[in-house]
TrEMBL record:
Signal peptide: none annotated. It comes from Streptomyces antimycoticus. This is 5-carboxymethyl-2-hydroxymuconate semialdehyde dehydrogenase. Residues 33-490 form the Aldehyde dehydrogenase domain. It comes from the Bacteria. The keyword Acetylation does not apply. Keywords: Oxidoreductase. The gene is hpaE. The active site is at residue 269. Belongs to the aldehyde dehydrogenase family. GO terms for molecular function: oxidoreductase activity, acting on the aldehyde or oxo group of donors, NAD or NADP as acceptor. Gene3D superfamilies: Aldehyde Dehydrogenase, Chain A, domain 1, Aldehyde Dehydrogenase, Chain A, domain 2.
Length: 503
């Protein structure tokens, strides 16, 4: 076990909320020899110093998860579900604290955290608790397959798999973490959660909440640190039975290579370059609303429809109305109720975003509005930006910016719209605005995307499969798909003969 200093410096105080900045391993707080700073994107202030995990902590966390696994796997489903519900209760009880800590840590809107994100965190736990209980098992009887087979019973069960490494990004830290933690725990697995180093705090609060809810020690472990320093030791570990990762394509490649050493099953939820297709027959008001919504969370949303594809005949009117509406967005402190767009997570991300915009302009793109940081708010507040005159094969159309930057292209007919929509290496999501039901059926059938929305955006039913095609990911999570991933599926085939008893 790593060293264990006892001082109160291992704490962040965010609006009066105490957050332990150490790891949570085997039901204990564990410090590291070194720390790293956690900076708020709201004003660049240092919030805390976070335990900087490495090989020792990775080893300790996997060992804890391995030791706790048999007990948790053997815990009756109803009891596992009860504890998950108690975690959901704890999240709801501390909703305001979680919301303010998350906003301070990652800069996303406080009102979104209060109204949408943290309630969803609780829902992730409740949903998978209930789904576990309905999942049951599947039985079917073999009727064919030769003279010996008839009457054989196939009994398919979702068995716990073992320790799971869950690695998550900073754009929706607790929501994305619990989307994995909840099904992994429900399935009877133990967890090592590694939150992103730019937003480490709410994962630590989750450890507290889970412990208060009665989750046994070692079932959920939280390790902090830089992916480059602790990642490989987690993903290469032979005792790890599943790896689920949400983040960038570059990191996913690295993780997949590590996982290859033990052939550890992987679930990857990666980036996107999703389109919003606006047909001339669409409700224009609705289409404009959907387009402006893509600036939510300052564009740091994997699913964001960052490519606006608009039918040429309405492009001028659409652009005019879009600009009018987007110009009314208020950028500022994400804790204030009136703010629509907050800051970008980190100066490095701003540089990246601005680099995309500058190179696009150099290649001939026109900045319709935005471009650059907000003059008064300063460097961390990149303005919502719209670019036109962009070529389909240009960098800004093909690569994920992960900031408040949209491009607008036009098309003349359905075939061209579909071609442009599908012509990237990604396939996470797509949104279609049309007033024609048959067109909706035709176009959605052709789009390459894990999720396609029609006349709506980000409507999430947790029973549905969620994930991406192409470079947007590997596998699907959600509902039974989550259990298919987190469990070892087993088929027991029982012959109708050979037993001494018939009971
Ligand atoms: N598809 C989805 O559901 C979804 C959701 C949100 C974000 N994303 C994507 O995430 C990206 C933004 O997040 P990010 O910049 O934090 O991604 P990132 O890949 O840089 O980091 C994600 C996580 O991976 C860790 N990591 C880094 N190197 C590692 C390594 N070698 N081994 C193990 N772990 C390592 C990081 O510490 C962090 O916790 C965007 O591409 C976005 O589209 C996808
Ligand atoms: O930024 C990405 C958001 C992803 C959303 C989900 O994973 C979800 O709603 O489950």
């Amino acid at each position: 076990m790593p060293q264990q200093p006892d001082t109160a410096v291992h704490e962040a105080r965010i609006a009066g909320v105490a957050v332990d900045t150490r790891h949570w391993i085997a039901g204990r707080r564990v410090a590291s020899a070194d720390t790293f700073p956690d900076v708020s994107p709201i004003d660049g202030s240092t919030l805390a110093r976070i335990a900087r995990g490495g090989p020792t902590e990775a080893e300790a966390a996997v060992a804890a998860a391995k030791a706790a696994f048999p007990g948790w796997a053997a815990t009756p489903r109803a009891e596992r579900a009860r504890i998950l519900r108690a975690i959901a209760d704890g999240v709801e009880k501390r909703l305001e604290e979680l919301a303010i800590v998350e906003t301070t840590d990652n800069g996303a809107l406080l009102r979104s955290h209060r109204r949408g994100v943290m309630p969803r965190v609780a829902r992730n736990f409740r949903f998978f608790a209930e789904w576990l209980l309905t999942l049951g098992h599947e039985d079917f009887t073999t009727h064919t397959g030769g003279p010996a087979a008839p009457g054989h019973t196939n009994h398919v069960s979702w068995d716990p798999a073992g320790p799971c490494v869950l690695i998550t990004p900073w754009n929706a830290p607790l929501m994305l973490a619990t989307w994995k933690v909840a099904p992994a725990l429900a399935a009877g697995n133990t967890v090592i959660l590694k939150p992103a180093e730019w937003s480490p705090l709410t994962a630590s609060l989750l450890a507290d909440i889970a412990a208060e809810a009665g989750l046994p020690p070692g079932v959920l472990n939280v390790v902090q640190g830089h992916g480059a320093e602790i990642g490989d030791d987690l993903t290469c570990h032979p005792d790890v039975r599943r790896i689920s990762f949400t983040g960038s394509v570059a990191t996913a490649r690295r993780i997949a290579a590590s996982a290859a050493s033990n052939l550890t099953p992987l679930s990857l939820e990666l980036g996107g370059k999703s389109p919003l297709l606006v047909f001339a027959d669409a409700d224009l008001e609705l289409a404009v609303d959907l387009a402006v919504e893509q600036f939510d969370n300052a564009g740091q949303v994997c699913l964001a429809a960052t490519r606006l594809l608009v039918e040429e005949s309405i492009a001028d009117e659409f652009t005019e109305r879009f600009v009018a509406k987007a110009s009314r967005l208020r950028q500022g402190d994400p804790r204030e109720a009136a703010t629509d767009i907050g800051p970008t997570i980190h100066p490095r991300q701003i540089e990246r975003i601005d680099g995309f915009v500058r190179r696009a302009v150099a290649a001939g793109a026109r900045v319709v509005f935005g471009g650059g940081s907000h003059a008064r708010l300063g460097g961390l507040y990149y303005r919502p930006t719209l670019l036109t005159d962009v070529a389909q094969d240009s960098e800004v159309v093909q690569e994920e910016v992960f900031g408040p930057v949209l491009t607008l292209q036009t098309f003349v007919d359905e075939a061209e719209a579909i071609h442009l929509a599908n012509d990237t290496r990604f396939g996470l999501a797509a949104t279609v605005a049309t007033g024609d039901h048959r067109r909706a059926e035709r176009v959605t059938a052709e789009l390459v995307a894990g999720t396609v929305w029609v006349n709506c955006f980000f409507v999430r039913d947790l029973r549905a499969p969620f994930g991406g095609s192409r470079l947007s990911g590997v596998g699907r999570e959600g509902g039974t798909w989550s259990f298919d991933f987190y469990c070892d599926l087993k088929n027991r085939v029982m012959a109708p003969k050979g037993f001494h008893d018939h009971g």
